[in-house]
């Protein structure tokens, strides 16, 4: 990925394999949402290899079933959120561009699996969900 005004490729690197395979189209959309929100987006997870995805599952995190996470294709990101006002600004801006949002206690997940991926990874559009952990 090319660095943008608000994001550096290093923010999206997989902690396990050290790869960064983000979709440039996804990053451009995320950049647009960041400009709309006018608050920083701290990325806590971007690209994930299958080994890291499996490790998260083993540790009890709520993740997509094996082989189907949009993180594997570089079309998903988790954004740290501290405080209801910042969370509101982030979610509101994401919803102007994206249709798939997951809300955790201290992060917001966004993905574009409904737009940028092959049929076997397709997800339903217009989804907002919450994470139990």
Any overview of this molecule?
The protein is α+β, with helices and mostly antiparallel strands. The chain has a single domain, classed as 2-Layer Sandwich (Muramoyl-pentapeptide Carboxypeptidase, domain 2), CATH 3.30.1380. 26% of the residues lie in helices and 17% in strands. It contains 3 helices and 5 strands, in the order αβαβαβββ. The chain has helices spanning 24-37, 50-58, 84-94; strands spanning 42-45, 76-80, 100-103, 107-111, 127-130. β3 and β4 (107-111) form a beta hairpin. α1 packs across α3 (84-94).
What are the defining features of this structure?
single chain; 133 residues; alpha+beta; Muramoyl-pentapeptide Carboxypeptidase, domain 2; 5 strands; 26% helix; globular
Give the number of helices.
Answer: 3
Strand order of the largest sheet: 1-2-4-3-5
What is the distance, rounded to the nearest whole angstrom, between the alpha carbons of the first and last residues? 30 Å
Q: Which residues form runs of ≥5 with pLDDT under 50?
A: none
Q: Calculate the mean pLDDT score and round it.
A: 90
Count of the separate structural domains: 1
Topology order in helix (H) and strand (E) letters: HEHEHEEE
| CATH architecture name | 2-Layer Sandwich
CATH class: Alpha Beta
Strand content: 15-25%
- How many beta-strand segments? 5
Per the principal axes of the C-alpha atoms, what is the gross shape?
globular
What percentage of residues falls in helices of 4 or more residues? 25-40%
Question: Which fold name fills CATH's third level, the topology?
Answer: Muramoyl-pentapeptide Carboxypeptidase, domain 2
Broad structural category: alpha+beta
- Which radius of gyration do the C-alpha atoms yield? 14 Å
Characterize the largest beta sheet: strand count, sense, and whether it forms a barrel.
5 strands, mixed
């Amino acid at each position: 990925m090319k660095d943008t005004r608000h994001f550096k490729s290093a923010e999206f690197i997989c902690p396990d394999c050290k790869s960064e395979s983000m979709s440039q189209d996804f990053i451009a959309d995320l950049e647009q949402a960041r400009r709309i929100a006018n608050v920083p987006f701290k990325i806590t997870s971007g690209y994930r290899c299958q080994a890291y995805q499996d490790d998260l599952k083993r540790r009890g995190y709520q993740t997509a079933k094996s082989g189907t996470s949009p993180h594997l294709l570089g079309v998903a990101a988790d954004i740290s959120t501290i405080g209801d006002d910042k969370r509101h600004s982030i979610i509101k801006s994401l919803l102007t561009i994206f249709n798939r949002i997951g809300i955790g206690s201290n992060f917001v997940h966004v993905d574009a699996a409904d737009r940028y991926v092959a049929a076997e990874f397709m997800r339903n559009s217009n989804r907002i969900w919450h994470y139990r952990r």
